[in-house]
Amino acid sequence: MHHLIKDTEFSEISKCLFQIKAIHKTNITRLRNFIEAVCYVLRSDCQWRLLPTEYGFWRAVHKRFKQWSDRNIWKKLFEGIRIDPDLEYLMIDSSVVRAHACAAGYGKDSQEKEALGRSKGGFTTKIHAAVDALGNPLKFSLTGGQRHDITQAPFLTEEFIGAFTLADKGYDSNAFIESLNAKGSISVIPSRKNRKFPRVYDEFLYEDRNRVECFFNKIKHFRRVFSRYDKYAQSFLSFLYFVGTLIWIR
Question: How do residues 81-129 score in pLDDT, each as one tens digit?
Fold first, then answer.
């Protein structure tokens, strides 16, 4: 079977998984087959029922993925791989992805809970992310596509403190900037055009914010993230955590 994940990469993943309790990991071959199956869906965006038989019965693979998702195993894997980030800069941003019609209908009036909404782009989900100075992901958050970026800024910056925090003018908020100053982080955020007294910021340093833009471009090469087909927000977020894991180990 052709492996989508290199041996060295799977070695890093397995080391981290062995630190996580209450998952079946004694059979390395079956474990790798499962991880490869999820990677195949992530990269190809195929329906679970169209998963090639070499990866096993699709329903069993999907059930195990959902169990890992509900128990935050994918998040724990990501956090186990995410070590020693470069916090010279902390960069935050968001990107909207189109949600397919099959992503709707998880439950009555559940769109907000499942991070689905309607924006100018149509039926969408917004991915919010924080990355380090090298463009490696640190945190993810999901909202409906119509939600403003600033609503997730406190969550994205509560765990990590960069010497500088870089963001676009969508994050120009007095309360948010004051919170960064209280943490000892210098904000590099341009003022909105309606400010009477625009703040001064380091325009040369702000140019490095392109790394968070490059990060979003990178994750959208994974077709399962480029468009959303998952009804359950936690499942879509689990795919994001797996993408983040793959970025860290490559």
Answer: 999 999 999 999 999 999 988 888 766 677 888 889 888 878 999 999 9
For 22-56, letters b (16+ CB in 10 Å) and e give: eeeeeeeeebbbbbbbbbbbbbebeeeeebeeebb
Alpha carbon distance 248, 234 (integer Å): 21
Q: Residue 10 pairs with which residues in a beta bridge? A: none
Task: Tell if the pTM clears 0.90, that is, is over it.
Answer: yes
Separation between Cα atoms, residue 136 and residue 248, nearest integer Å: 7
129 has which bridge partners?
93, 140
* CA-based nearest residue to 243, from 29, 4, 7, 32: 4
**Where are the alpha helices (H) located in 107-209, listed in sequence order?**
153-157, 174-183, 203-206
Distance CA 40, CA 133 (A): 29
